From TrEMBL:
Protein name as it appears in the record: GST N-terminal domain-containing protein
Alphabetized InterPro entries for the sequence: Glutathione-S-Trfase_C_sf, Glutathione_S-Trfase_N, GST_UstS-like_C, Thioredoxin-like_sf
A GO biological process held by the record: L-phenylalanine catabolic process
Matches recorded under PANTHER family: MALEYLACETOACETATE ISOMERASE
CDD domains referenced in this protein's UniProt entry, alphabetically: GST_C_family
Pfam family, any one: GST_C_7
Amino acid sequence: MLPLVLYDILSELPGNNWSANPAKPRFVLSYKDLPFVTLWVEYSDIPIAMKAIGAKPNKRQDGSDVYTVPVLSDPNTGALITDSLEIASYLEKTYPEKPIFPNNSEALIRAFDSAYMSLILPGFKPMFPRTIEILSPASAKFFIGARLVDFPLPWDVNCDADRKLTEKGYNTVYEWYQKTDGKWIMGNTFSYADIIVACWLLAYKRVLKEDDEWARISSWNGGKWAEVLADVERECKLA
Ligand SMILES: N[C@@H](CCC(=O)N[C@@H](CS)C(=O)NCC(=O)O)C(=O)O
C-alpha cells in the first residue's frame, strides 16, 4: 500500500502538529494504522499550493470559496479530499477496519462536531495572538487577514470574558462526558467524536503557553481535558 499524503500547516514550533483541523485526519490515519506522510504548507501558501494540486476549495460562512488545509491525497485510489470531516468520512468508507463511526454513528457525530464547535468558537480570540507568534512573518500576516473576517479586534490572550466563554463551553462538554458510562463520548466505544474533542485540546496545548494558559484550561473540570487528550493520543498511538 502506498502512503497517503496529508497536507498540514508549517509553524516554528518544534515538530509542528499544532493545528486542530489537520490534526484530526492525522489521528484517524494513525488510529487506523494507515501509512502516511505529511507535507507541511506555509499558511500563506495554502491557496496557491492547494489550487496547484487541484484540491477543491472549502466554503466560508458567507458561502464564498476559501482554500483550506487539511487536504488528503490517497495515491491508492486517486482521491483528493478537502475538509477534516470529509476526510474522516472517506477514510472510514475506504478503510473500514477499526471504525471511527461505529454503530452507524456518522450522522450523529457530524451533529456533535457542529455542537462542539458552536460551544468553543465564541472563545477563540485569545488563541490568535499566540498563533501569530508561531508562524513566519508572511503567514502571520495572512492569518491576521483571514481571521479578522470573522473575529474583529481586539485579540487579547488575557481577556477574561473570552476565557469565560471557553470555560462555559467545556463545562457543557464535561456534562456530556458525565452522561456516558465509560471514558469516551460513546461510553466504552472510541469514536471520531473523541478525536474532535482532543484535537482542539491539542491545539490549545501546542499554541498557548503550556505552563500558563494551557495549565489553566487543563485544570478545569478536575483535570478532565488533559486526561481526554492523553487518552485519545494513546488510543491513536500518538503518545
Ligand atoms: N472545516 C474545515 C476547516 C479547515 C480550516 O479552516 N483550515 C484552516 C487552517 S486550520 C485554513 O486552512 N484556513 C485558510 C484560511 O483561513 O484562509 C476542516 O475541518 O477541514
